[in-house]
Q: What sequence folds into this?
């Protein structure tokens, strides 16, 4: 029985979820939800019972001192609510946690129970994957859904993925079977610079989320962090000729693939997005703090695979699309 005492009646609520782990390359997706919580001062109203869903030998609890008293933080998934004002008020239910170790169906049913009780109109699940994409280009973000009507009306891809999946795919299918509109947004993170954080990918997810739910998102210092991240990776790549050559190969492949998109219609769409995001421009959530959303690129990432110690990236590959290693691609 889900009890939601103290949670106010919500206005046109959308649930936005992200989970650390397999579907969160560079911590990009979970960082996006954390950004929303921080900027809009989300208030936590529920947490799932860690005993039900987590293996504590995989996701260990942490001990900390508070006023000289030892306390324990257990790995779990928490739900918070943020109230967004403006010309078109809309409330968000934010779900942030760790991919569960077990009982995934029960986990999804519990999340959907909250969604039902709160009157959630749509669920948006954020994910990030490793791919053959250069850090110097805009971060590709794909929007996928299992609902053909939603794919048509919101200009999304209808998922055709087959293969291993994570909690993002399971939750989206659970939403579909429950009759709840659900969309997954996937950002592609360069596999040769996969260490978190990746503010450029986080920013790209928030940009796409803005368009999807028609809501202005305050960015704070995220755009500047993204630019600093890209400059830092540029400097590291320049120190190794093999890495620089590999990045150039990815750039050429990306630019060739993007040529068909350089149409008048595509340019017009991008210009419309720019107008919507201009500082002080009209929008449901009012002016964006810290500037409009741009895909800049954080300086603490490294061009090194910590498991092997190598600095030279492998050749581009197109392996299993849900393999959390190199060549990963999105699924719904």
A:
């Amino acid at each position: 029985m889900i009890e939601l005492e103290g949670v106010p009646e919500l206005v046109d609520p959308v649930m936005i979820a992200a989970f650390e782990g397999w579907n969160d390359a560079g911590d990009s997706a979970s960082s996006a939800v954390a950004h929303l919580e921080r900027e809009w001062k989300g208030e936590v109203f529920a947490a799932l019972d860690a005993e039900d869903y987590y293996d504590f030998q995989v996701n260990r609890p942490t001990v900390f001192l508070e006023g000289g008293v030892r306390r324990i933080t257990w790995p779990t998934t928490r739900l918070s609510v943020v109230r967004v004002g403006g010309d078109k008020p809309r409330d968000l239910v934010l779900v942030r946690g760790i991919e569960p170790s077990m009982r995934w169906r029960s986990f999804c049913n519990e999340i959907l129970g909250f969604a039902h009780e709160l009157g959630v109109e749509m669920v948006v699940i954020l994910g990030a994957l490793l791919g053959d994409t250069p850090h110097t280009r805009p971060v590709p973000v794909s929007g996928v859904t299992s609902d053909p009507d939603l794919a048509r009306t919101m200009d999304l891809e209808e998922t055709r993925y087959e293969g291993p999946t994570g909690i993002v795919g399971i939750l989206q299918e659970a939403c579909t079977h429950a009759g709840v509109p659900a969309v997954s947004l996937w950002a592609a993170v360069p596999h040769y610079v996969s260490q978190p954080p990746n503010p450029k990918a986080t920013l790209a997810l928030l940009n796409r989320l803005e368009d999807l739910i028609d809501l202005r998102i305050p960015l704070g210092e995220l755009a500047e962090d993204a630019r600093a991240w890209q400059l830092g990776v540029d400097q590291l790549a320049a120190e190794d000729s093999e890495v620089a050559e590999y990045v150039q190969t990815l750039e050429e492949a990306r630019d060739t693939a993007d040529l068909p998109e350089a149409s008048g219609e595509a340019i017009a769409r991008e210009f419309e997005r720019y107008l919507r995001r201009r500082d002080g421009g009209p929008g449901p959530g009012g002016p964006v703090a810290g500037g409009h959303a741009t895909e800049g690129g954080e300086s603490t990432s490294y061009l090194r695979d910590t498991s092997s110690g190598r600095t030279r990236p492998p050749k581009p590959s197109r392996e299993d699309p849900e393999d959390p290693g190199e060549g990963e691609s999105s699924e719904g």
About this structure: The two ends are 29 Å apart (CA to CA). The CA atoms of residues 178 and 331 lie 19 Å apart. Residues 280-329 have pLDDT under 50 and may be disordered.
